[in-house]
C-alpha cells in the first residue's frame, strides 16, 4: 500500500504522511527539521506550523484588548 505524500514548503522534500493522520496534525520534516501542519488531506497539503503560531498570538492580543474596567462595575 502506498503511503500518502506531501511536500515540505520549506525545503521541498517529500513528506510521508500516515494514513490515519488528521487535518491539523503536526509533522516534522526529516530533511530540514521544519514543523509542519497538515492542512489538507486530499490532496495532502502541508504548511509551516510557525505561520499558525503568529495567528494564535494575534488572536490572543485582540482578546486582551477588552477594557477590564467594565467588569468592575458589575460587582
Q: What does this 3D model show about the protein?
A:
This is Lysine biosynthesis protein LysW. InterPro entries: LysW. Residues 48-75 are annotated as: Disordered. This protein has 75 residues and is α+β, with helices and mostly antiparallel strands. It has helices at 49-64, 69-72; strands spanning 5-7, 14-16, 26-28, 35-41, 44-48. 27% of the residues lie in helices and 28% in strands. The strands form two sheets. The chain has a three-stranded antiparallel beta sheet. A hairpin with a 6-residue loop joins strand 3 and strand 4 (35-41). The longest helix is centred in the last third of the chain and has 16 residues, at 49-64. The N and C termini lie far apart (63 Å).
Descriptive keywords:
alpha+beta; 5 strands; two-stranded antiparallel sheet; globular; 75 residues; LysW; 2 helices; three-stranded antiparallel beta sheet; Lysine biosynthesis protein LysW
